[in-house]
Each structure stands twice: as C-alpha cells, then as structure tokens.
Design goal:
Layout lengths: L2 E5 L2 E4 L4 E8 L8 E6 L6 E6 L5 E3 L7 E6 L4 E6 L8 E7 L8 E2 L3 E6 L1
Parallel strand pairs: 2-11
Antiparallel strand pairs: 1-3, 3-8, 4-5, 4-9, 5-6, 7-8, 9-10, 9-11
C-alpha cells in the first residue's frame, strides 16, 4: 500500500513562492499518474495539476503559468512549485496517487498553504 506525506506548506505574502513536496513510500510510483489537489476554506476539493508517468502535465486554468508540477522518480517524490501566489490560492493542498488496475487511489494528509494580501 502506497503512503504519501506532503510538506512545504506555510504562510507567505502575495507574490511569493512555495514548493510543496510529496514523498511516496510502499512501492515505486514511476508508472503512476500523480496529482495535486486543494481545498479552499468552505469549498470543495479541486484539481490543481497532474503529471503522468511520461511527464505529461495538466493544470487548472487559474494556476497555469504560475504553478509547475514535476516528479523525481529516483526520490519517489512529486513537487509543486508555486510562484506568484495569490490570496485565493489559500487552501489545504493534497497529493494524490492514481492507482492502476486493482489498486486504490491514495491521498496524503494535506499541507496548509496560506497567502496573505
């Protein structure tokens, strides 16, 4: 069973940057799509970005050009570089492992990102 641990969240001023990390354990994740989601206060969880095993990426329109998802398979880690942060980016950010075949999807515990104006 894959387990995910996110880190890198915190408090930052608008216009600043943060880099989130998601470390996977249990088995290599190189063949799986990985993703970042977020849940703003009082709202539903939403997709931020995904990256496939071939490193094809997809982004929510509101973060295009500001956020970059990447992966380091040697470290079994996925990253989310967030630049030009805005107050509306404030949310709990979750890492997601997309299971293949019989595997279940797995979520991390989340990391809080707060952007002050």
């Amino acid at each position: 069973q894959v387990q995910l641990v996110e880190s890198g969240g915190g408090l930052v001023e608008a216009g600043g940057s943060l880099r989130l990390s998601c470390v996977a354990s249990g088995r290599p994740i190189s063949i799986n799509t990985m993703g970042w989601y977020r849940q703003p206060p009082g709202k539903q969880r939403e997709l931020v970005a995904t990256i496939t095993s071939s490193r094809r990426t997809n982004y929510q329109d509101s973060v295009k050009g500001r956020f970059t998802i990447s992966r380091d398979n040697a470290q079994n880690t996925v990253f989310l570089q967030m630049d030009s942060l805005k107050p509306e980016d404030t949310a709990v950010y979750y890492c997601k492992f997309f299971g293949l075949g019989y595997e279940y999807d797995v979520w991390g515990q989340g990391t809080q990102v707060t952007v002050s104006s």
